[in-house]
Amino acid sequence: MSSGRKPVLLRVDPAVHDALVRWASDDFRSLNAHVELLLRRALTEAGRMPRQAAGLPRRGRPPAGEDGGA
């Protein structure tokens, strides 16, 4: 992968999956982005977030003027 991110296969109960999809949608995130956000929160709260971990990638449309277009 060129982005340096690692793919992970995650098996979850269908009801849990549906709840996560709804929650992600409510927050205007993809399921993948939402799961990563939740994992990062859990790591931070547990004092286990690695210092060398990169920040979350910016998602969505860039602000006006940052895309190089007119």
**Total beta-strand segments:** 0
Low-confidence stretches: none
* Quaternary structure state of the chains depicted: single chain
Output the structural class. Answer: mainly alpha
Helix content: 40-55%
End-to-end C-alpha gap: 31 Å
Query: So what's the overall shape?
Result: globular
The helix/strand order is HH
Rg measurement, Å: 15 Å
**What profile does the largest beta sheet have?**
none
Count, helices: 2
Description:
This protein has 70 residues and is mostly helical. It has a domain at 14-45. The protein contains two helices and no strands. It has helices at residues 14-26, 31-45. The longest helix has 15 residues, at 31-45. It is globular. The termini are far apart.
Labels describing this entry:
single chain; 70 residues; 2 helices
Quick structural overview:
The protein has 70 residues and is mostly helical. The chain contains two helices and no strands. The longest helix has 15 residues, at 31-45.
Topology:
Layout: H1 14-26, H2 31-45
